[in-house]
Write a structure and sequence with these properties.
This protein has seven helices and no strands. The N terminus is likely disordered.
Amino acid sequence: MPKQIKCTQGDLNTPGEFGIPDPVYKLLVAMNLISKKPSDADMKIISVVSHLWNGDGSLEFLRLKLLSMRKDKRTDAVELCDLTHVERYVFSTYREAYEGGFKINKAILAGRVNSHFHGARLSDDALKSLQRRARQSSRRHKNNIGDNE
């Protein structure tokens, strides 16, 4: 049995000190599971999430979650985990284009990203890298159609 993690609001001042990565903390806030300035009730939730995140069984939870997903969704989850929200949007746009048999103009895509994500910009190298990854993913997906068990 993993050791119990005890957290109190007074002991912790920043999200990194909660025993979970900042993006996980921010996701809990965004999902309205906890408030930005955690209450005692929020600290119980954070303690449970920290235990699940860092405990001996954390990989088992991940494995069970992945098993509950279709193969194409599992592949996407792993394939895109290192990308930002903007990069995932670009990747998905390119991949849909490849799978649909049409081309995307980089300047138009960059403009869409800029307007949709409030001034966000990606370098030409980043766009090329995402385009290459999307092409490879599309090829893999075409080779695995019907194998979504």
